[in-house]
Amino acid sequence: MYRNLLSRWLLQGEWQAHRLQIVAALIAIALGIAMGFSIHLINTAAVNEFSAAVKSLSGQSDLQVRATQPTFDEMLYPLLAQHEGVAIASPVLEIQVAVPAKLEDDRNNTLKILGIDVYRAITITPDLVGVPEEGRAFDMLSDDAIFLSPAAMEWLEAKQGDRLPLRLGTKTVTLRVAGGLVRAHAGQRIAVMDIGAAQWHFDHIGVLSRIDLKLKQGIHHRGFKAALEKELPAQYLVTETIDQERRVHNMSRAYRINLNVLALVALFTGAFLVFSTQVLSTLRRRPQFALLRVLGLTRNQILLQILRESSLLGILGSLLGLGLGYALAATALHIYGGDLGGGFFSEIKPSIQLSPLAAVLFLVLGIGVTLLGSLLPAWEAARAHPAPALKSGSEEIALTKLQTPWPALICLLLAVILTQLPPVAELPFFGYFAVALLLIGGIAWMPSLTALLFSGLFRVFNRLTAGALTTLALARLANAPQQAAIALGGVLVSFCLMVAMAIMVASFRISVEDWLAHILPADIYVRTEVRQDALGFTPQEQQVIAATTGIERIDFIRSLQITLDPTRPTVTLIARPIDKTDPGNTLPMTDTALNSAEIPPEAIPIWVSEAMVDLYDYRVGKRVALPLSEVQQDYIVAGVWRDYGRQFGAIQMQLSDYQKVTSELQVNEAALWLQDGVTPEQVMAALKVLPFGDTLTFWQPNEIRAISLKIFDRSFAVTYLLELIAVGVGLLGVAASFSAQALRRVKEFGMLRHIGVTRGQIYRMLALEGGLLTGFGITIGFLLGGGISLILIFIVNPQSFHWTMQLHVPWQWLIIMALAMLMAAALTALLAGRHAVAGNVIRAVKEDW
Q1: For residue 105, is it within any domain?
Q2: pTM for the complete prediction?
Q3: Structural domain boundaries, residue 752
Q4: Measured on CA atoms in the order 253, 256, 262, 264, is the torsion positive or negative?
Q5: N or C end: fewer C-beta atoms under 10 angstroms in the chain?
């Protein structure tokens, strides 16, 4: 009982006397847990919602048959419907159409229409069957009827009976809203109509997007799937719902894991702040713990007391972080959606689902990190011998073990070795470990570097007969380097992380700007309202556009999605005019490419993005097969180009080769170069008066760049937030560390006051100490952050997202942040010392027994 009273009394006294340090540590823990928990909630909500939407579209089907291209010949349907082992086959046509009414206020103005056979779909995908008005059951088969999901009705502001104009290519179709999809998944913007009507209205006669299969009872699904894959030609894919979900996970996996790692970095920063706070706290309380040992407390009781205080700190900070994380997740979902700006889950509107297990795990993580940060100082305080610990001045002796540089050098060496290892499961786990070891090694090396620097400075300034205050400040830093290094840790960690993130983001952003300037050479880009339109412009429409007055040159472009691996997201194929002798005029090429003489005449050249090299091993000179036609063609990889717009791979080829292989003459985009003296507005006005002019959308390079960079900034919004958090946590660490050190130096300040040093001089000395420490921390933090940024740019990003970038250092921004942190740290040190100096001088000296 008395021990519990003593424990509570010690805890209350410590927390009441040092509120600033406790509050700083609580905020650091809370911010780390909040970032991790909020990102977990957002990612979990988005993935679960998207998986549920996929299951809703798949219904009760056992298998789905698709093609490597968006559509395939519908003659496959009767063959599958009559196949032994198939109970029901349901054909589906998926079409992305534009909603002209939403073009002005919503650039993402496309609506997915599913054409279904109602009598087949009702047994496999009942969620896709519309509910017509009472007494009009045959509307389900009407050629002008469309059924909207609740989310689509809300978005379109439509109601039953309204006429809805929809556009595909240069054709506009007006349909009647005949009812709703009451069982559609929440947030899903889709529409359903009769498959025959969809094929007819939108010029998709004779093609399907997929066929859902329900197998007969007793049929072994896996065996049937394997057999069917062998029966069907190579351009067909047999998939299950789980395959679709796996593709969804693969699409966003790297982005989600990188966000989680950034959140763990914030938690690590908070853990180090707890460590520095606890070290300084136990050093200040060494005489108190030694006296308790003399009075009868054992080493284990001292150890448990310190860990009990730390665990309570971790519990409170983690609970605060869980609440803050939930609020952050709700806000982020409302503002950015389920993809945090990444663009992976833009079609859904997920809602937060709080998992008690996840909350408990993050609570345990916060407590564990806090205890880990307190274990070393608690162990040292418990093992300290009472007699020397009771004496003033023994604090630096307790930290002598920190001055050995070998653990730090081992961590740095391991970090360098890990940077040379390949990714694991296409993720840069060794790169993450290298960043962590670089941080730990840099922090562990600080006591040695601090002792080396300030001892040298003290000797130099001592010979130069520097002023008394400078001598006192340097003497303090030179003779207590371990304590100085601990105070420096908060600045080092926060600034190096800020430097690493700033350099990485700046390098990526400038690389994207240069890339956009290269891939957007034309004056105007013209396309229909759907980005990758299945119809696009007919040859006759292409001729009309090319004949428009004021156009000097025109390049037509055809793009579509193809599937090379059913477990991976689709690859973008782009067919356009490309000069084989100098593809760099059109594409932002890397250093690897074949010249025209090295391309065999019987092979069709293709140029692939960097992601294709990593994901599909499409290396320069390799012969590959593409699923563009039933007749096998020979393709050769002629070069690699840099692509920041398509993480999962893109292939470019000459438009003439594509048209020759596929016999498709339609295109979905045109790049226009204008004659001298002709303005873009004049040409756009001329194109608008064409018979199909109202179906065209126009983009100028500056507009595309602005939108692309806006999307970039949106995607990195979390990174910007983490930069601010890193700076804030660093300043909290400076405040807590300097405050703890100033309070521990009350006796020192009392002696200085007795020998004639004024309070103002002590204030200036503290500000000088803070400035010197922070300046050194900023310098080392810049070097350490620069090293981390190299790992992020040249290892983590290529292994995560399969693209490379050039190194760009935002010097102006870094200098501004360094000066701001330097001034803030010096001011913080000054304010932290005011309380310690304000006490009674005689009483302060009396405490030095």
Answers
A1: yes
A2: 0.82
A3: 445-520+702-784+795-849
A4: negative
A5: N
